[in-house]
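Our consortium's second objective concerns turning raw sequence data into structural hypotheses that experimental partners can test. To show how far this objective has progressed, the report includes one record in full. It was chosen at random from the queue rather than selected for favorable results. The single chain below, 63 residues long, was entered without modification.
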Amino acid sequence: MPLGKLALIVASAMIAAGLTVWVGAWVTSALQFDGSVWPVAIPAALVCFAVWRVIAWSMRNEP
């Protein structure tokens, strides 16, 4: 893999991670969640995402 392409991938991943943290902090401060919400909200969001992906996959692969 050329060094320029690798550098672009690494830079893109770092920028995406930084934006994710920034948006998460912004949303958290805007909604004023207390600390007891996050242990439930994060796994619930991950389960919803997994269910959504399974449904999308099964609709795409119908015979």
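The partners drew two points from this record. The chain has two helices and no strands. The mean pLDDT is 86. Both points have been shared with the crystallography group to help prioritize constructs.
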